[in-house]
C-alpha cells in the first residue's frame, strides 16, 4: 500500500488504504479544519518532534465502548468520597502540557510537540477539544484531554501527578460521556493500562461503522462547564 502525500487541500485518502501498521498519509498541516475532518473519518496525527506530520488509521482500533469500562473499586470510592474535585475545561492547556511532560514507559520523549499542543488549544477555543481534570488540595493532580465530535470522544492523552488521579478523571469522563449519550471513547492504539480500564480492539470496519453512526448525532460544541 502507498503512503499518501498530503498537500494544501483539506482531504484524506480512504483509511482502508492505510499500511498494515496503520500509517495512511504524511504531510499537510494541523489546521482545525483538517484535524476535525481527520477525526470524523477515524484518522489521527501521531509523530515525533522533527518528523513530518504522520496520519494514522490503525486496524484493529482500540476503543472503550459504552458501559464496558473497568474502573477499580478503590478508584470509584475515591471518586464518590470526593477525594478529588472534578472539573471540566478549566485547565485545558495545563492538562496538555502535563501530558507532554509525563514520563512514558519505553519512550524517551513525547509525541505532544509544541505544534500539536498549539493545534489542540485552537480546537479547545473552538469548543471541540476538552479536558476533564482531577484536582486535589487546589492543585491539578491528573487529567485527560481529547476531541469531541458527534457522539464520540477521541481521547488523546492522560496524566497523573497523584496516584489514581488519571483513573479518577477517566471514570468521571465515562460517567459524563455515557450520560450525554456518547457511543464510545476512542483510545486509538492499545496499551496495557488502557486494557485494564476496559479498552478493547475492534476491526477498523466496525470502528468506522460505529463512527459513522456517532457522527449522525448532534455534538456538544462549546465549553464543558
Topology:
Elements: E1 4-6, E2 23-27, H1 32-40, E3 44-45, E4 54-56, E5 61-65, H2 73-81, E6 85-88, H3 92-101, H4 114-125, E7 129-136, E8 139-149, E9 152-160, H5 165-179, E10 184-188, H6 192-196, E11 200-202, H7 204-215
Parallel strand pairs: 1-2, 9-10
Antiparallel strand pairs: 2-4, 3-4, 5-10, 5-11, 6-7, 7-8, 8-9
Helix pairs in contact: 2-5, 3-4
Explained architecture:
It is built from seven helices and eleven strands. A seven-stranded mixed beta sheet has the order 6-7-8-9-10-5-11, with helices on both faces. It has a four-stranded mixed beta sheet with strand order 1-2-4-3. Helix 2 packs across helix 5 and helix 3 runs antiparallel to helix 4.
Gist of the model:
With 225 residues, the chain is α+β, with helices and mostly antiparallel strands. The strands form two sheets. Strands 6-7-8-9-10-5-11 form a seven-stranded mixed beta sheet, sandwiched between helices.
Roughly how many Å apart are the termini?
44 Å
Number of DSSP helices?
7
Q: Count of DSSP E strands?
A: 11
Which shape, going by the Cα principal axes?
globular
| Average pLDDT | 94
The amount of helix comes to 25-40%
Strand order of the largest sheet: 6-7-8-9-10-5-11
> Sheet with the most strands?
7 strands, mixed
> Which percent range describes the beta-strand content?
25-35%
The residue ranges in which pLDDT falls below 50 over 5 or more consecutive positions are: none
Amino acid at each position: 500500500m502507498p503512503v499518501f502525500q498530503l498537500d494544501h487541500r483539506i482531504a484524506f485518502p480512504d483509511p482502508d488504504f492505510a499500511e498494515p501498521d496503520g500509517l495512511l498519509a504524511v504531510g499537510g498541516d494541523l489546521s482545525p479544519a483538517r484535524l476535525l475532518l481527520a477525526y470524523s473519518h477515524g484518522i489521527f496525527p501521531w509523530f515525533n518532534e522533527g518528523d513530518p506530520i504522520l496520519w494514522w488509521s490503525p486496524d484493529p482500533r482500540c476503543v472503550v465502548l459504552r458501559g464496558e469500562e473497568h474502573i477499580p473499586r478503590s478508584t470509584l470510592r475515591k471518586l464518590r468520597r470526593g477525594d478529588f474535585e472534578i472539573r471540566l475545561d478549566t485547565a485545558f492547556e495545563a492538562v496538555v502540557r502535563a501530558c507532554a511532560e509525563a514520563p512514558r514507559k519505553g519512550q524517551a520523549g513525547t509525541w505532544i510537540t509544541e505544534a500539536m499542543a498549539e493545534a489542540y488549544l485552537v480546537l479547545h477555543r473552538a469548543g471541540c477539544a476538552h479536558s476533564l481534570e482531577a484536582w486535589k488540595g487546589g492543585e491539578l493532580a491528573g487529567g485527560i484531554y481529547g476531541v469531541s465530535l458527534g457522539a464520540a470522544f477521541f481521547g488523546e492523552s492522560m496524566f497523573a501527578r497523584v496516584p489514581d488521579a488519571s483513573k479518577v478523571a477517566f471514570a468521571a469522563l465515562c460517567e459524563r460521556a455515557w450520560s450525554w449519550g456518547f457511543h464510545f471513547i476512542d483510545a486509538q492504539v492499545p496499551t496495557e493500562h488502557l486494557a485494564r480500564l476496559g479498552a478493547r480492539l475492534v476491526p477498523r470496519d466496525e470502528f468506522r461503522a460505529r463512527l459513522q453512526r456517532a457522527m449522525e448525532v448532534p455534538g456538544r460544541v462549546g465549553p464543558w462547564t
